[in-house]
Amino acid sequence: MSDRPLKLLLIDQDPIFRLGLRAALDTIPDLQVIAEVETDTSALQILAEIAKQDPKQVNLVVLELGNGRTTSQQLGLQFCRQLRALYPNLPILLFSSVQEQGILLAAKAIGVNGYCAKGIPFSELVVAMREVASGGSYWFVDSGSVNSQNSKLRTQNSSLPFAKIRNNLRLSGIGHIDATLAAVTAQLQVPGLPLLDRAILAGQRRELLASRWLLNKLLSSQQKRQEQQGQFIPDASPSISLSSAIASSEQIPSLLSPRALQSALFSSCVTKLQFPLQNVTVVPLEIEILREDKKRELLYLILQKLAEQLDDLRVSQIEINQLYEVKSTLLSDLWQAAITDFFGKFSRVRVGNEDIEIVKYLLQNTEIVQTDILNKIPLVVELFAYLLFQTELRIDNASYAPFSAEAKSQALMILENLLIQVANGVLQPLLNSLADVEAIKQSFYCRQLISTREIERFRNELSWKYRLNSYINEPKAIFESRYALFVIAPRGIAETSVYAPRNKELAQLSGIPLVVTLILEFRDAIAPRLRSLVSFLGSGIVFILTQIIGRGLGLIGRGILQGIGSVSLTEKNLRRNSDRPK
């Protein structure tokens, strides 16, 4: 094995298991857990960030085959395939509860380097990690059928009565802790929870997590090693660092998986979500009413839901031409998922004498939000096609190659606008119906917009914005063939615009919006002539004022001054003559 320390990324859906495993691994001097995540999307984001900073930070990935997103083992295999395609020389070790021989043989065929069943002694797990990280492979098989191709993978021997009792005791204790932990976590998610109660519940949750890890560690440490050493199958391929994998990917960009685009783009978006999120535009936004932390939480939540939606689309093997058909459904589903998770599926609020389920109440406004906000989000299909199929991005009258920096920059603007607009959609029904409910104000609103007067003023500004957009701003943008986008800048949420053909929308305009475009066209047509006429008239007026009236006034003034001078001189002479002695 190399002298370099073993640095690993841990992927598992169980936060308590990750906590316990990380605590145990931290006791190994030359072993370091760089990060531990719940989902495959988060793992790819972490790897993309690491590749930018120091590609040598990770030399092993340890994962549960389910990847935390669903219980489907096929999805886990798909993620392994994507990980192998993106980082072909990064070692992968399955540390999983999956024991089906067919699944594990498929994982090995994909290129997974090793497997350990959950429940093996900790020392054996460390041996497997070292072996896989060094460039080898480590698979556990039944000692009685090592040479058989169809042999079953070895599982922990629990034939001893004491082992069964101890295992039952451990599972019973963990079950009790899990039930209590779930109850405490549910209480923590109740909106408007007093600060003192929240602090107490958070402390109880930390104690339960520590108790579960301690129970696992103590009982596992008493377990004698029942198994023989796992079969070691040498691997001829040497260990290659993550930097080599990234370098290879940069040399052959066409071979990169579409997940590489998503991972890099989402990583950049997560970084920008750390910027201040105050609105620095002149356009009022629904999310302005949220506290900074709640605003950031909502945007990040929508990004997570979007990542899951993209994963589902990949699994469904959707075709690119079908994206236009399902666009409205995708945006509606994304909006509903964001509302459900942001407010809590079963959260209630008291309005008058009635208890209302917040999510159920807000989802009654689906059609309104779809019409006012979601259907007007631009370039959604282009963004999905870019992330799913590596299509060129045609924005601002130019085409950008999928892996170019320009394409990423344009896609990032579209993504940020999508997050902000969906977030506005999440808040719109709340502001329409439940804006002045005290429990909601205390849980979500910023201090500047918490009084009834300020809330009503803010709602009036939003109402005026919709009228202005509907009758003037949107027709003008269609006529000018551009889209206005809200983006996250270092100073806050800013506004920009990009060119895109909108001839079809222009042909569909009617009523006041059509009149607005005709007025703009008339203004553009008459403006040059009007400017010429005004310029001519202005020149004539200036000539008359300066050459005729000005000169005339000048001559008159000069005559008056001369006359005054003569009168004064005559008066002086008369006075002088009268003063002489007679």
TrEMBL record:
Listed SUPFAM superfamilies: CheY-like
GO biological process, one term: phosphorelay signal transduction system
Coiled-coil intervals, chain numbering: none
InterPro entries tied to this protein: CheY-like_superfamily, EvgA-like, NreC/VraR/RcsB-like_REC, Sig_transdc_resp-reg_receiver, Uncharacterised_Ycf55_cyanobac, UPF_Ycf55
Top-rank taxon, per record: Bacteria
Segments forming domain Response regulatory: 7-133
PANTHER family given in the database record: HTH-TYPE TRANSCRIPTIONAL REGULATOR YHJB-RELATED
Protein name: DUF3685 domain-containing protein
